């Protein structure tokens, strides 16, 4: 029972951290929030929300702001504006 409460609190904290990361203009700070969020997830053994996972670059841990998005063969191609990493996400309707 206690674990469930802890997991819920951790999930909330992760969401809050991601919101902060998205809202800040400071890229270094945003990256710190994302790393912290991943750490909490790892420690609590919680996977990051899929919607959150697709909203930041796995390579440089920066939230996507104005990423280059391309549609290609039912895949969304997202290009990170910061490190240039290209990511392909299956396109679901
Ligand atoms: Zn990147």
From TrEMBL:
<keyword id="KW-0255">Endonuclease</keyword>
<keyword id="KW-0862">Zinc</keyword>
<dbReference type="Pfam" id="PF04032">
    <property type="entry name" value="Rpr2"/>
</dbReference>
<comment type="function">
    <text>Part of ribonuclease P, a protein complex that generates mature tRNA molecules by cleaving their 5'-ends.</text>
</comment>
<dbReference type="GO" id="GO:0008270">
    <property type="term" value="F:zinc ion binding"/>
</dbReference>
<keyword id="KW-0540">Nuclease</keyword>
<dbReference type="GO" id="GO:0005737">
    <property type="term" value="C:cytoplasm"/>
</dbReference>
<keyword id="KW-0963">Cytoplasm</keyword>
<dbReference type="GO" id="GO:0030677">
    <property type="term" value="C:ribonuclease P complex"/>
</dbReference>
<feature type="binding site">
    <location>
        <position position="83"/>
    </location>
    <ligand>
        <name>Zn(2+)</name>
    </ligand>
</feature>
<comment type="similarity">
    <text>Belongs to the eukaryotic/archaeal RNase P protein component 4 family.</text>
</comment>
<dbReference type="InterPro" id="IPR007175">
    <property type="entry name" value="Rpr2/Snm1/Rpp21"/>
</dbReference>
<feature type="binding site">
    <location>
        <position position="57"/>
    </location>
    <ligand>
        <name>Zn(2+)</name>
    </ligand>
</feature>
<protein>
    <recommendedName>
        <fullName>Ribonuclease P protein component 4</fullName>
        <ecNumber>3.1.26.5</ecNumber>
    </recommendedName>
</protein>
<dbReference type="InterPro" id="IPR016432">
    <property type="entry name" value="RNP4"/>
</dbReference>
<comment type="subunit">
    <text>Consists of a catalytic RNA component and at least 4-5 protein subunits.</text>
</comment>
<keyword id="KW-0378">Hydrolase</keyword>
<feature type="binding site">
    <location>
        <position position="80"/>
    </location>
    <ligand>
        <name>Zn(2+)</name>
    </ligand>
</feature>
<keyword id="KW-0479">Metal-binding</keyword>
<dbReference type="GO" id="GO:0004526">
    <property type="term" value="F:ribonuclease P activity"/>
</dbReference>
<dbReference type="GO" id="GO:0001682">
    <property type="term" value="P:tRNA 5'-leader removal"/>
</dbReference>
<keyword id="KW-0819">tRNA processing</keyword>
<feature type="binding site">
    <location>
        <position position="60"/>
    </location>
    <ligand>
        <name>Zn(2+)</name>
    </ligand>
</feature>
């Amino acid at each position: 029972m206690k674990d469930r409460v802890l997991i819920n609190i951790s999930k909330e904290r992760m969401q809050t951290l991601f919101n902060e990361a998205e809202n800040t203009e400071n890229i270094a700070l945003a990256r710190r929030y994302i790393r912290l969020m991943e750490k909490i997830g790892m420690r609590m053994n919680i996977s990051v929300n899929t919607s959150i996972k697709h909203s930041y670059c796995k390579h440089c841990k920066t939230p996507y702001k104005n990423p280059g998005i391309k549609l290609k063969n039912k895949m969304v191609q997202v290009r990170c504006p910061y490190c240039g990493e290209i990511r392909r996400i299956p396109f679901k309707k």
